[in-house]
Amino acid sequence: MEKYDPKVTPWQVSERDFPREGSSTEKLKFLLRYAILAPSSHNSQPWKFNIRDCEIDIFTDKDRWLKVADADQRELYISVGCALENLLIAAEHFGYAHQEEYFREGEDSLVALVKLTPQEKIEKQRDPVLFEQIPQRYTNHNLYETRKIPNAEMAQLHACICEEGFWIFSTSEGPYILYTEEELRGRIDELIIRADAIQLTDRAYTKELGFWFGQGAFGTPWLMAKISQLALTYLNISKGQTKKDSEMLLSAPALVALASAADDRKSQVMAGQIFDRIVLTATSLGMAIHPMSQILEVPEIKAELRELLEVPEVKAEVAKLSPEENVFPQQTFRLGYAEPEQEHTPRRPLEEVLV
Ligand SMILES: Cc1cc2nc3c(=O)[nH]c(=O)nc-3n(C[C@H](O)[C@H](O)[C@H](O)COP(=O)(O)O)c2cc1C
Description:
Blueprint: H1 24-35, E1 47-52, E2 55-60, H2 74-93, E3 96-102, E4 110-118, H3 129-133, H4 151-158, E5 166-170, H5 181-199, H6 203-214, H7 222-234, H8 238-251, E6 254-260, H9 265-284, E7 288-291, H10 294-297, H11 299-309, H12 312-319, E8 328-336, H13 350-353
Helix pairs in contact: 1-2, 2-9, 4-9, 5-8, 6-7
């Protein structure tokens, strides 16, 4: 069998290479090969890890924070939450019990300390099917088929949430009392169009997006990446991209918002963990998934989405919530079925993200 080189092909990670006879550090390092395959906004991979005895500490890498697109750092913490969840899924697969502590007074970038204890037989908290999906998963940017998502499969996505205070709101489960499904889709499309119009005519936003394109973060070949960077920085691509985003959105049978009862950092990390389980479950069901965050990146548009979810009847119907309870949208995405993407996006080598 060809030995993979994790520096150039992180997606080819194989469980057969787990260093069973190796040291504890080598084993924990191997688990991180799965963590770094997590999705992240602009593929910024804003994480760092420190291995200590039987523990892995996870940090944000604020040098990679998207200061313009993600001014409130919500996506930074969601992205780190996705990496944390991949780590926990891998840990369970290789026989580790785990205990997480979130944040610590006075340690600014420390997100979680994960204590890992090898066990003969561990009680798995997560669906074992998720592990195999980690190297298969990707964000699918294609147009989606109109085929509906069966209720049983939506139910499986809802079941990804085992924590209190998190919910999925989906257009495909309408009609809600106040809106038909079509009305709701129209409202969300309008929000996407307005958010795009604001962001794509904002020089700081397009320059930042162009920077990540230029770095090759989206997996485009070098020359194409540089041309995209120039186009984003110097041309007005607003009209074309807005139309494309609207078509992508409306092609999907379900537009979904993952929301939480609180809007603190821990809730955002946990939203990332849940989102990661949702994308892996969707992958296992042969579904395509694509986060579309522009609605949440423009504060006034986010407020309008929140109003839409905060309608008492909608809250009561979807999440059995009382009118006083808050609903904060954390991640929006489209969901459905589509042709596969051709390639995975690149990842930084593991050595680069170890403290
Ligand atoms: C918090 C978060 C927000 C994201 N927002 C968007 C988005 O608005 N538009 C988009 O096309 N992809 C979005 N993505 C997907 C990332 O671009 C994608 O995960 C990254 O490029 C890595 O590619 P992969 O998911 O195929 O591995 C987001 C991902 C995360 C975790």
